[in-house]
Amino acid sequence: MQQETNMQRRSFNKGLLGAAAAVASGLQSAAWAQAWPARPIKWILSQPAGSGPDILARFVADNLSRRLGQPIVVDNRPGGQNVIGAQAAMRSPADGYTFYYATTAAMVTNVFTFKALPYDPEKDFAPVRLIGRSPFVIAAGAAFTGNTLADAMAQTKAQPEKLAMATEGPKTFSGMLADSFAAMAGIKFTHVPYNKAPDAIQDLIGGRVNFICLPEAALLSYIRSGQIKALAVSSAQRTANLPSVPTLSETFAGFEYTGWNGLFAPAGTPAAILDSVSRELEAVLKQPEVAQRLLTLGSIPETKMNVAEFDAFMRAERTRWAGIVKTIGIKPE
Fold it and tell me: Residue 18 pLDDT more than 80?
């Protein structure tokens, strides 16, 4: 009986210690959040200065810094298909002063295109907030005799593998979107990869390739000037910038491929800080002038996704892309 009582006492004490540790951890997290931010914050970015994601990141960071009362410095770490930037962010202290401004490629599709990805998007990072979604556009050169996606599909079917589609590469978001479209449409084109979007656009204008698949932001000015013809957008709804251009889902039900950009922190960053940043970002994204500028830059602002919802979104995205990659036959390298 005495032995049983001692065991119960030890079990009770262990429970008290566990509860005390949890309370202490929560109090420490809350205390950090109250004192934070006490110095400048750094956002690591895997894209080069002047790129589309860089322009978006700097604009959002500038507006957020005004609310936080501390500068936010954007640190460009391009190269290695996002690996260099991701590793730099992963290895940073989890103290709320370093964040990773990432795209779909870094946090989702790289999982399926690398045999040995040197970071784990799920274990090495904590999601903070989805910032915006970026629609892509399938377009043709001005010399294209048709005007619709159906025209492009008909011409490609009539000349299998003879018409060329320019993308950022077969294992990039634009390349996989183009391949998914081809699989859905039952067509075959010659895939022409480009390291730089401007080179691909100039080759489309010059007639050296027939079609292109790139972010709306990269193509918008050329579409408006009439140098290229927009055939379809990849978002669920028509975009504010191209309201007369149909979505891919209007031809293929459920076909939605939007890239996105979001903010992450090194794993272990105090939850109270993650929540604080998420709330402040929500306030920034709800400002009409900020939302309008993001739309102009080709990013649809996301104002209804907190930390937990962003985490669930990320898990769903990885599941969805696992199916996409299998369908188009992408093999990790």
Answer: no
